[in-house]
Design brief:
Length: 111
């Protein structure tokens, strides 16, 4: 009989069902905190990706607008250069305004 008692003392006692359920409920607050943190991280990740995409769209729109403005500036610079051409100015003065080059009698030298 002493052998039977000794063998029985080495066997683990079965866990009670109530204790197992209580241990699960002890983990519930910890699991809830983990779930809330994971949800917050996921929301932040999605928000940051949406913000990056939004900023990329704004950047591409600004780049397109800048390119258009540079083309417009180049066109206007060319137009100004053609308007300042002395031959064009002289042709407009003679044709539209009826002007003519001064004669020798019309020129007065100031000293």
């Amino acid at each position: 009989m002493s052998n039977a008692r000794m063998a029985y003392s080495k066997v683990a006692a079965p866990r009670k069902l109530e204790a197992a359920i209580a241990n699960r409920w002890d983990l519930f607050p910890f699991l809830m905190v983990v779930m809330v943190l994971l949800t917050l991280v996921a929301i932040f990740h999605v928000w940051s990706r949406v913000t990056v995409i939004d900023l990329n769209l704004q950047l591409s729109e600004s780049s397109r607008s800048l390119k258009e403005q540079q083309q417009e500036q180049n066109r206007l610079t060319l137009e100004v250069a053609s308007m300042k051409n002395p031959a064009r100015v002289e042709a407009l003065a003679k044709g539209e305004l009826g002007m003519a080059l001064p004669t020798e009698q019309q020129v007065v030298v100031v000293r």
